[in-house]
Design a protein that fits this description.
alpha+beta, OB fold (Dihydrolipoamide Acetyltransferase, E2P), 2 domains, five-stranded mixed β-barrel, 4 helices
Length: 158
Amino acid sequence: MDALFALLGDVQPWHWLALGAILVGIEIISPTFYFLWPGLAAGVVGATLYLFPTLGPQNQVILFAVLSVVATVVWKRFAPADWTTTKPHPTLNRPRAAQYVGRRARAADGFSGGRGAVLIDDTRWSATTDDGSDPAAGEMVTVTGSDGSVLKIARKPD
């Protein structure tokens, strides 16, 4: 242990600051928050050594260890439960057509064999009827689902 403290006898404040920067850099690469707190502790030790140049190597290591452990434990204890979890957007990985479910659409042309096209807003969509019926051109229908980019529709009274 004396050899370690002899090696640390020549440590300058910038050594601790460099260690802190390296640890925070590792944290940026790995989103675990476990390298952040020792990185900040190393920065605090560097600043302390700058302010108090007579701080011995043993005290530097003890200060670093204590600050690292305390900061990590405090973070684990008081961090919000959803700190690292993200909630996906409700339409993430769902086809664009799924947002039209429940909307009213107008048949663009007369359907044939249960297949045709509908107009929603300013977009023309391919569509199929749920029951195989053939709505006439201009008839109002309701979107009930989608199969990829093909809307599924049903005739419902206004």
